[in-house]
Amino acid sequence: MTRDFLEATCVECPRGCRLSVRRAGGEVSVSGAACPRGEAWGRRELLSPARVLTGTVRTTSSDMPRLPVRTREAIPLDKLMEAARALSSVIASGPLVPGDPVVEDFAGLGVDLLATACLPPDSLP
Ligand code: SF4
Fold it and tell me: Which pLDDT does position 3 carry in this prediction?
């Protein structure tokens, strides 16, 4: 869905500027941003909104049955629900440290799913 107007709070830093983003005649204008980073965020938010997916996945470890994960980069907002559902089919095995890929090209989205916590190796039976 394309929009021509958006009001949103910039999430690029804690200052949280309130932005108005408008598209008219092929031009996008951003008001309310205190810096270029926020202007760029406002443009992206209007033209191609995306979010980093966070969640947890199952593991093979009985000591730590769930592992927190995130996507390496933001994914298109309209793919977020589908990607969240795909987390349920992931099973992680240790050892992993934060930043290690759990799944490459997660759900065919072209981004890796990363561990955000340590997962120790499975203990021997
Ligand atoms: S516009 Fe700039 S200063 Fe304002 S919240 Fe966004 S990043 Fe921070």
Answer: 84
